[in-house]
Specification:
Rossmann fold; DNA polymerase, domain 1; 2 domains; 6-stranded parallel beta sheet; 6 strands; globular
């Protein structure tokens, strides 16, 4: 193994609930009606994808670009007030970085990835948003792009994920997947069975061969 690639939301930041609350409030304020499947449907989507979803599936009365920009602005406000780091996450990344090149491959927009890196000061030389890719997770694009930027074959990368669509993306990329299941939105059991499951992100350093 030659590199470790981390998801961000749900792996390093306890943000899935924040995203959900912000999107629901934004949708309600702009004429949308939340559906029972909306939260899970949007997990892993790229910014253009979930912006379009809010308009087409939830009924937000804006353009997809306006919807995504509005939600991201609210997320920036939320992070400015409190960045919900997962306990042990920063130490886990630092430990991994002493042994491997590390990267972030996230569905979060680049501006929010930058907030995380600025606050933590972590040594992450490659950070990729699925905004840069043709498709978000469960497509493997963002993981393949991160591996390419690291100069490492995907088959030689660990991927650290928490959600169903994230796990599917990393598996499709041909990576060795370490799963830290999201407690708020547990991944599908059939997908989780294809990964090595860790109890918490704090267990990551010991799991790296």
């Amino acid at each position: 193994m030659e590199a470790v690639i981390f998801d961000l939301d749900g792996v390093l930041i306890d943000s899935e609930q924040v995203w959900d609350e912000v999107r629901q409030a934004f949708a309600a304020a702009h004429g949308g009606v939340w559906t029972p499947t909306a939260t899970r449907d949007m997990q892993g989507m790229s910014t253009p994808e979930w912006g379009a979803y809010l308009v087409e599936a939830v009924g937000v009365r804006l353009t997809p670009e306006q919807a995504s920009a509005g939600v991201i602005a609210e997320m920036q406000k939320a992070y400015a007030a409190h960045l919900p780091l997962i306990p042990g996450a920063v130490d886990a990344v630092r430990a991994a970085a002493t042994r491997f090149p590390v990267a972030i491959a996230s569905s979060a927009p680049a501006v929010l990835i930058k907030v995380f890196l600025d606050v933590t000061g972590l040594p992450v030389p490659v950070a990729v948003s699925s905004e840069e890719c043709a498709a978000g997770k469960p497509s493997p694009d963002v993981y393949l792009l991160a591996a390419s930027k690291l100069g490492v074959p995907p088959s030689s990368c660990y991927a650290v994920e928490d959600s169903t669509n994230g796990l599917r993306a990393a598996l499709a990329a041909g990576m060795t997947v370490l799963a830290v299941p999201n407690p708020h939105f547990p991944p599908a059991e059939d997908v989780l069975a294809q990964a090595r499951v860790l109890a918490s992100i704090a267990d990551l350093p010991d799991a790296l061969a």
